Structure formats: C-alpha cells, structure tokens
Amino acid sequence: MVDIIASSEKIIVLGLGMTGLSVARYLQRENRPFILADTRSHLANQALIEREFGADLHLNVDESVLLSATTIIISPGIDRRLPMVAKAIDQGIEVIGDIELFARATSKPVLAITGSNGKTTVTTWVGELLKSAGFSVAVGGNIGTPVLDLLVDDQQWDYYVLELSSFQLESTNSLAPVAATILNVSPDHLDRYDSLIEYHMAKQRIYRNAKAVIVNREDPLTQAPVAKSMTVFSVGLGSPDRHAFGIVDSQLTYEFTPFLSVDELKVAGKHNQLNAMFALAMIQAVGIDFHQVIPALKAFSGLPHRCQTVASHAQVLYINDSKATNVGATLAALQGLSGGKGKLVLIAGGEGKQADFTPLRSAFLQSLRALVVMGKAAQELAELVAGEIAVVHVNSMIEAVKAGQSYAQPGDIVLLSPACASFDMFTSFEHRGECFVQAVRELAA
After folding, report:
1. Cβ(72)–Cβ(91) below 8 Å
2. 98 touches 175 (CB < 8 A)
3. Residues with Cβ < 8 Å from 126, sequence gap 6 or more?
4. Whole-angstrom Cα distance, residue 372 to residue 392?
5. How far apart are CA 272 and CA 336, in angstroms?
6. What is the arithmetic mean of pLDDT over 153-165?
7. By the 8 A CB rule, do 320 and 304 touch?
8. Main-chain dihedrals φ then ψ at residue 196, nearest 5 degrees
9. Which of 244-250's residues contact partners 24+ apart within 8 Å by CB, and which partners?
10. How many whole angstroms separate alpha carbon 206 and alpha carbon 248?
11. Pairing between strand 244-248 and 251-254?
C-alpha cells in the first residue's frame, strides 16, 4: 500500500453513510487516526458506529471542527459547496473522496464508467465480459461494494471496473484509468448543480489521466479533450469508422466488419444496443480482442429495474424501468422501445428534482397511446400533452398498472419509466420497481 496520509495530518471523515463508513474502515486498517463527522444531528446506527471505531464523533458538525483538519474525506452525498466545506477548500484544506484514496492506493488497471444513464448496466456488463475472458475482476464504486472495501483483496484482482458518479468525480484527482467513458450527459441533479454545464464538467473529470477513452458520437457532451497520448474509440447507432462501433443493417459492427445481429442480444431497445457496444469498446480499449467475449455479451440479460421485462399478459408487454430517475433515462427508454407494431402506455412521475420535462413532449406525442402520471411531478408531466393524448392521474402503483392495462392494446407495451426520483412515494427506485412488478403479477394472475 502507498502511504496515503502523513501521520501529522488531522483526518476528518465527513458523512457517515455507506461510503463514509468504508473510508473509516480503510483508515482503521491502515492504522491512520481519524475523526468522524456528519451534518446530521442523529444517526440511527450511532451506537454501532461508536463501538466499531472508537473515534471522536461530531454530529451536526460545525465549521470550527472542519477548519481544524488538514484532510477532509467527504462522502459524495455532501455538497462541496456547503459553506463550511467551501471555506475549508478556500483555506487550502484538502477535500477528497473515497475514489481519490483508492486511486492513490492501487496500481491495478481501472476501467472507469460514468454517464447520466446506463452506467450501472455497462459497468456490470464490462465486469462480466472480463470474467468470461478469464480475468479476476472487482466491480464497484457507485454500485455494490465501495471501492475501499475492494482494496482488501487488491492483490487478487487483474482489473477494477468502477461506476463513478459526478459527485464522486468532483473529489477525485489522481485516478488514471486504462479506459474511461462518459456514456451520455442529460440534465440531472440540477438540485445540486447550477447548470447542465457544471454537471457536464464534473463528468468530464473521468477523462483526466486516462490512457484510452470511449465517446458517444451522438452526444457532444461526452467528447474528450484529447491528448496526443490518448487513444479514442467511439460508439453510435450509425455506421462506424476507424476505432469505432456502430450498427449497419441491424448488425453490430466494428470499423467496417459486422460481427453480431442485434436480435441476438437478450436486452431490448436501441439504448441497450449502445450499452453493448460501449461494453465491447471498453474491452477493446484495454487491448483484449472483443471477439472472444461475444458469447458473454449475448448471455447478459440485463439488471432489475432497467428496462426489465416483467410479464406478457393479454398480448401486452410490461417493462420495469424504475431506474429511469431523470428525463434522459426516460427518453432513452422511449426511443429504444418505440418503433415496433404497438404503442407505449407510460407510467411516469415522482420527485422531479427541478428538472425541465419539455424534452419529453415530442417523444410522448410520437410514442404514447396514453400517459399515466403520479407523484409530485404528475401535473407538470400531464401538462406536456394535455388534450393531445389520454392522461390519467393515479395515487398508487396498483392504480397505475390498472390504468395501463385499460389503455393498452394487443402489441403495446406498458412501461414504468418515471423520469423522476422515487422518494416522494417510495423508499427507493428499487422499491418503486418492486411495487410495479408485484402489481403486474397480481394483474396477470
């Protein structure tokens, strides 16, 4: 292990959720003294934390505590613009996150993935492809296991595959991925960022120090500021060129050679065709011939709550895309699933996070037979197409599924793709998706 923080430093772990506690365990393993702090006044697991770490604990932490630090290790859920954090930064106090600690502590190759939508699917898929090629792979970051927990077994891994959020990237400087990608950028987290450009710039940090990058030809905000030492691959739905993946006559194609029919993928939608090509491009970018992982590419059946087929009932397909917590994700689902014989009945709504829903209007008019709305953003979504297509207001997921069934015709899809966060009515997007799945199964029964 690299010597991370000098013994003379005063380390404060700020934010005691899953990430913060993994930081504390890492520092404990490294025999580094630290102080625990949180902006909340009460923690449900406070007694357990005190017993496990035996460190000073400051709840409802005040400015004086933070300004006494030489290093603050901040959880991604805490905004760096919080006045006392911003003041610490202004005074030259190092404010970093768990990804930065990880980057300083390992020399193993890292494949890094971010984007507004699809990053969990692509991260998981890349991990599966590498495993199928015979490598020992650790998958984590913004999904599953926090990265510092993965370091316990650092010597056994050939590769790390990391999903990284914009919040994590804000506090990361030293990461040097062998391959990095921004899948797409669409408005999200505008309750935390002042503008789309600010959000976009946070995502762009993933390209710093990268050896190879993969960009989306159809999204200019994914383009990288290219250094001479950097290899660039690209992905898009159109015909590819050099170092590029694309689709020609319904065939996944690399450069000028088709290699797989899109019908052989188990996951549905054009957005998942893009995801498949991003996964392959990551493999190609690290010097592995992607052809050897094609069987694993075809075997991948997707993740729960991400365009997950739940059931087919009375010739209507029911799809759970509860993870679509922003406008871009829902647009991707609508564009990916439309164009078939039938129409879509969309269930949408929830906590809007101050998003601009107007980009959905055109897709709604082109793709939907009916719109079912719920949650805080219901009226705002309904007003996009009021008087032009059928709109139904509901108060529960059971009502939503019943409304979807009543409007759907044979060949149609009833799609849960909310374009909103879940926490106004549900505990998480997973809970929301599970409620949808249960309602569909009760309907089918």
Report:
1. no
2. no
3. 111, 113, 161, 279, 282, 283
4. 5
5. 8
6. 97
7. yes
8. -60, -35
9. 244/217, 245/277, 245/280, 245/281, 246/217, 246/277, 247/273
10. 30
11. antiparallel
CA pair distance 65, 71, nearest whole angstrom? 12
For residue 78, give the nearest of 8, 142, 13 by alpha carbon. Answer: 13
**Each residue's pLDDT tens digit, 210-219:** 999 999 999 9
The tens digit of pLDDT for each residue in 233-252 reads 999 999 999 999 999 999 99
**Inter-residue contact 95 to 88 (CB < 8 Å):** yes
| Catalytic residue annotation | 119, 142, 189
What values do phi and psi take at 298, rounded to 5?
A: -70, -30
State the DSSP string of 73-133.
EE-TTS-TTSHHHHHHHHTT-EEE-HHHHHHHH--S-EEEEE-SSSHHHHHHHHHHHHHHT
State pLDDT tens for residues 60-98.
999 999 999 999 999 999 999 999 999 999 999 999 999
Cβ contact 177:231 at 8 Å: no
User: Is the model's pLDDT at 179 over the cut of 90?
Assistant: yes
pLDDT at 7: 55
pLDDT at 214: 97
Exposed/middle/buried for 270, CB within 10 Å: 0-12, 13-18, 19+? Answer: middle
Contact 237, 246 (CB under 8 A): yes
Q: Note the residue count of the chain.
A: 445
Question: Distance between CA atoms of 344 and 364, rounded to whole angstroms?
Answer: 9
| Average pLDDT over every residue of 416-440 | 97
pLDDT at 1: 40
Q: Rounded CA gap, 241 and 423, in Å?
A: 43
How far is the C-alpha of 144 from the C-alpha of 163, rounded, in Å? 10
Distance between CA atoms of residues 198 and 294, nearest Å: 37
- Kindly list the strands in the beta sheet with 413-416, ordered across the sheet, starting from the edge strand earlier in the chain: 308-313, 316-320, 413-416, 344-348, 368-373, 390-393
The token pair that represents 208 in the structure block: 């710093």
Give the C-alpha separation, 11 to 70, whole Å. Answer: 6
CA 106 to chain centre: 23
Name 338's Cβ contacts closer than 8 Å, sequence gap at least 6. 344, 363, 366, 367
